[in-house]
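User: Here's a chain of 300 residues. Predict its fold as tokens.
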Amino acid sequence: MHNFIGEISALSAAFLWALSSMIYRLLGRTIAPLQLNILKGLIAIAMLLVTLMFQGWQWGVVSFNGLLVLAFSGILGIGLGDTAFFTALNHLGPRRTLLLETLAPPMGAFLAFILIGERLSYFAWCGILLTILGVAWVISEGTLDTEKDKSSLLLGFFWGLGAAIAQASGAVLSRMVLLDSNLSSLESSLIRLTAGFAITLLLWLLPLPLPKLKSVTKLESFSLRLWGTLAIATFFGTYLGIWLQQTSLKFAPAGIAQTLLATSPLFIIPMVVMRGEKVSWRSLGGVLLSIMGISLLFLR
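Assistant: Prediction complete.
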């Protein structure tokens, strides 16, 4: 199983993101995207610092250039990417947004080939294709929404596409540094998350014409229940999720890690079943197709 630690970590992160995305969707109705990204980043950084202190905190060796690249990957993937993702959620809803997110794995595999010469086998490429087709098949069901106006859909499309590009780029840059250093997954998570938090805070402080992004819910109006919900979503989706994401990027090729990280919608199916809702044969067919693809990825 140790040979597949990257793949298992990616699937575990996907499960946690599926769980937390449902909570973030509810939080997004109360908290604006930038403010939500800032708050979850601050809470997750505190959690990572406490964990590192309990572990005896010994930094791995990384060059200054590597540190800059890792920080930039956090700016792209976490700061800009997550903000774009939350904004797309508000405009498109979870299904359309996640559908656009399926573009990230092939983008990541292509960028990894260009930037670090990472070549994938035919088994891996077939696995990526089948997995993404299965995920897209599941989440494309019922995406028609007549309540959304065209301008909102178009704006949401650009935000969703931007999120996919930012996350793919951030993942590849992160893997580039992890391959050339002995940083732990936890340390790289802290660096990326801190850089992402810094750029998000900067976007919020700068006088940019982004009223919907920069609207603020006063902290005094936060109920204990809202703080608790935010803390739970941050623990599972950001603290553990990014830690597992970094582990997957350290031990698995970028294209494979990104593909498995994109399987979050598949984990929503059993959650829906547990709530007593019916699942269509189409969705089950998509899950089966993705399982076939995931099996091929373990044969890389």
